[in-house]
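We modelled the chain as a single entity of 229 amino acids. Its sequence is:
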Amino acid sequence: MPFFFFDPTIIILIPAIILSFYASAKVKTTYSKYRRIRSRSGLTGKDAAKLILHNKGINDVGIEMVEGGLTDHYDPRSKILRLSRANYEGHSLAAVGVAAHEAGHAIQHAKGYAPLGIRSAVVPISGFGSYMAFPLIIIGIILSRPMFLDIGILLFSAVVFFTLVTLPVEYNASTRAIAEIEGSTILDREEIPGAKKVLSAAALTYVAAASVAILQLIRLLLLRSYFNE
């Protein structure tokens, strides 16, 4: 059996790794470009998110600023929409686009969007799986104990499921965000394509993450098959 860290199955991951590097570079360059373009309305990301939530009749969601770059997220447990400083205070097309996307998650929550609920429910299992899966898999390989491998692969499957259910959640949030922007005065018609490009680049990172997870699971199943030979 090939050694876990230096076996030929590692090539399975290469396409997804390349996609991940491309997606990371794409989101950084696209965000950087549109962060420099000020929206004509002069609205900040916070203003845009607040307006979208108000227009949808959502009045129980708070908006807070968090430090870090692109740390923006919506917490359904506390009903808090958190925006990084650049997007909270920024007046750019990028800031408005990202803030609208996070508001899209709040709308999902308010509307009972099923995939968001599923993702939230899977978070604890996925977190545990990402922490424990590979130590168990490595132990199983070193000690030649298939049981540890099986448990590790099962835990990692939860991680894969999380990345897959994340895709519709993120794409739907962006779709809702653009619909709200188009139906308001947040951005002019000529500015909307810029916001779309920011959100499309961000979505690609989730596609890349899902691709890595899926191919990694295939690789693990292939490694597991060696124990049956």
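As a brief sanity check on the tokenised model: Residues 4-228 form one domain. Residues 1-5 have pLDDT under 50 and may be disordered.
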